[in-house]
Amino acid sequence: MKPVIALVGRPNVGKSTLFNRLTRTRDALVANQPGLTRDRHYGLGRLGPREYLVVDTGGLEPVAKDGIYAEMAKQSRQAIVESDLVLFLVDGRQGVTPHDHVIAAELRKAKRDVILVVNKTEGYTHSMAAADFFELGLGEPETISASHGDGVRQLMDIACEKLPVLPEDEEGGRRIKVAIAGRPNVGKSTMVNTLLGEERVIAFDLPGTTRDSIYIDFERNDKPYTLIDTAGLRKRGKVFESVEKFSVIKTLQAIEDANVVILMLDAQQDISDQDASIAGFIVEAGRSLVLAVNKWDSLDDYRKERIKAEVGRKLTFLSYAKFHYVSATKPFGIAAMMKSVDEAHAAAFAKLSTPKLTRLIQECVEHQQPPRKGIFRPKLRYAHQGGQNPPIVIVHGTALDAIPDNYKRYLETRIRDRFKLDGTPLRVEFRSNVNPFDKKD
Fold this sequence. Notes:
G_ENGA; Rossmann fold; GMP Synthetase, Chain A, domain 3; elongated; 6-stranded mixed beta sheet; alpha/beta; 3 domains; 12 helices; KH_dom-like_a/b; 22% strand; ribosome biogenesis; hydrolase; single chain; hydrolase activity
């Protein structure tokens, strides 16, 4: 198990900037706006051969009693409990604040190793930048500039000396990346917390609470998964904040990074064009799909029948996907939903035998030949698998560019039924043989 380093401090002191530098990514959103990071955000860092997990947290507001800042503070405190080492970031330009004193007192009570990090010190000498912060009583401060990288290597040399040396766990098998996507406030974060059995991400009755895509490793029935909690996707015309625009990009990237996407719908609202649009993007990305209609426990029988009819009418292009009617808060329907996730993942990475594919294509032609185009009829010779996630089947023959879309859908249906490819999109591509006599000297 890799040691854990938590980045803690007031809002807007540069925690996410340091997170991105330590993980050598741009996974954490960065903007000159307090309260941007809200959930715990995990990333992998490395210093030479030494690896560690870095946890980016929301701003710790010790005086917040309720609302989103109180939830953020709760997430920060949980990160402190989980950590082996805390990097307490303060703002070298602002100097010591009363909130810094309160956070320092909390960290002393937590009995964790703490390194006091004075950020934003570019242009200052070490002694000048660190002088005011000795009064926090956390030892000698380390001065850095997270945005410029000044002092970060020296900081991590000191940090790694304080980390415990633990044997590495060997992961058993491949982790299934499962992204949970949908419109804002449909219950995505609640579903994540239900699957994990803890309040791992903030579930708040306010659209737009989740802004980053949060990656979380967990196991269920001895199977390893990585859950990805994503920001809700609004209609394009309703996305105004620049931060929210970045959140949309992060969500789309998370969908492409996933193996399986759980598209959550809100049973208390009608199925909207936005739901269909999100589903269309998932299909275009080639990701396996499971649909979960949430808040099912709150509906009467009439409303349930109406929602089922709407799902069948507006999402008819998702006929290959499994639909589940669930409640993330009760909970019910979760076990069946996760079984469909496993099946969809297995289908996405299925290995399709070339002889079996070729025999199936020949059977399809015997049952129904492709229509003629002029005096020629396309001839399908053989087929083989061209890729996975999603499965790609390449069919070779002559004059295949004349095959219409309805015949292509016929082949897709037969291949899907024969190989039991439920829950995953399927791509069928045609490759026509080149006639050497077509080119004249």
